[in-house]
């Protein structure tokens, strides 16, 4: 078949040379489907001409600079003649990182040629049919374990469905390869990925960005081994969890590793051993209702895998009345990042949040923005904002020290007052700003931030691509009706590494939404195409997403007690993507429940819809390439 790019291989050691050293060998294949973003606001753009042949563009995009660059190229303009502005999005989930560009280009082309305002907004039906989805993958694996159940070697080949042309498939391929081993240390690993050209619209970014597809295969391999050895998968999982200073197979050393801490906390907090015993007893006593439990450890790297994107800028104005205007490159799309930017500025200046206004994201005010993606929006832009605020604060402290009659001193700003060595000086924020302006002190500043320490050599497949990792463990319980093939998610209980959360309400809400989106991906969100590539599941009557009736009966997310990371803004770790991976555990919880009824069920084919469950219960799903020795 045709490929969108040359195959990629990452490796550490040589699994082929170690198969003979393994006490147990298992191999098999997996299938994992795509997923529709289903943002509330569909794709769209509004453009109008301005003077001197320039263009103003309001675009529903996660990547204002990408839209600006594409429009300039299409129209033959310089980028400074195209101004892109984004106030907020009605959702995105990655679907507007790259795919918003074409609609903005179409509207801009018409506006430029007609010299009139043009608005282009897709209907829901057109949006579903014309946009790319999460990449489906077909994968083959081989895993080798020691007598003590240590994973000694692992080999995997991914076949990624990229669609008709390259969108973000190369970058998504990288993240799949980076997350091949999930939360486990495996000394011998080889992972190869083929990005296949097909007759579908180009598939694109989606929350997790290839990470879930990679993690699903290693979890399937462990589940396969556990089934054949007649033990819970959690035994193999626990024995192979990362430890401090272990090497990820792409060369980065694991630091500040919290995965074992979260695992132990989950076992303790959620009584996992007792739960496993109770479920075993329940299944023995009930013939037609079965339960299953699965644990899902998660280790997710935070940074763009394209190193150059790990940069951001901010622009801050302090006005003479003491109010503050903030512009950054981050896009608010419902994740609460603007609230976090307000918190950062308020903390840096020591003022009330009501004084701060977050401006729209605009390519004239803040140029060369990175996409709001890869869970980096708050970290990159928050750090840039801190740089800008810090510079202004330093100037204000000099003014305050001068007013207070001291050349030196420990001047601090908080509670809208100036403090010197912990004592109030009687100088208010308003007075300080007025005095600074009268002394012609600069009250405007730009901040630039570039994530330090990260690099990656794509030729060698080695480096330090991530600023830090987010860790956590989920315990998921499912109940299956063995007559109808239907199921319920009974409990989803999670210990999650938020770091030092700067806004627990926002972070917990983001985690809850991500988990449900992940469960939907694993259970019910099934895309269907005809042979010509036409989408058949092109409406909400044919594409099912989680609703209030399919939510877990119990959803608990407890923060792991952790110190955070210095490269996370205010030590508050990224929260956008990592919790989605917990949803993978829903597949294995349902699978375990089905196996309690039909021990021969051995398929790894997500989403595990009620149809597949029913066929699995009664042996209608044949093993596809499942082998073991």
Automatic annotation (TrEMBL):
<protein>
    <submittedName>
        <fullName>Xanthine dehydrogenase, molybdenum binding subunit</fullName>
        <ecNumber>1.17.1.4</ecNumber>
    </submittedName>
</protein>
<keyword id="KW-0560">Oxidoreductase</keyword>
<comment type="similarity">
    <text>Belongs to the xanthine dehydrogenase family.</text>
</comment>
<keyword id="KW-0411">Iron-sulfur</keyword>
<dbReference type="GO" id="GO:0004854">
    <property type="term" value="F:xanthine dehydrogenase activity"/>
</dbReference>
<keyword id="KW-0408">Iron</keyword>
<dbReference type="GO" id="GO:0051537">
    <property type="term" value="F:2 iron, 2 sulfur cluster binding"/>
</dbReference>
<dbReference type="Pfam" id="PF02738">
    <property type="entry name" value="MoCoBD_1"/>
</dbReference>
<feature type="domain" description="Aldehyde oxidase/xanthine dehydrogenase first molybdopterin binding">
    <location>
        <begin position="10"/>
        <end position="241"/>
    </location>
</feature>
<dbReference type="GO" id="GO:0005506">
    <property type="term" value="F:iron ion binding"/>
</dbReference>
<keyword id="KW-0001">2Fe-2S</keyword>
<keyword id="KW-0479">Metal-binding</keyword>
<dbReference type="InterPro" id="IPR016208">
    <property type="entry name" value="Ald_Oxase/xanthine_DH-like"/>
</dbReference>
<dbReference type="InterPro" id="IPR046867">
    <property type="entry name" value="AldOxase/xan_DH_MoCoBD2"/>
</dbReference>
<feature type="domain" description="Aldehyde oxidase/xanthine dehydrogenase second molybdopterin binding">
    <location>
        <begin position="270"/>
        <end position="552"/>
    </location>
</feature>
<dbReference type="InterPro" id="IPR008274">
    <property type="entry name" value="AldOxase/xan_DH_MoCoBD1"/>
</dbReference>
<dbReference type="Pfam" id="PF20256">
    <property type="entry name" value="MoCoBD_2"/>
</dbReference>
<dbReference type="InterPro" id="IPR037165">
    <property type="entry name" value="AldOxase/xan_DH_Mopterin-bd_sf"/>
</dbReference>
<keyword id="KW-0500">Molybdenum</keyword>
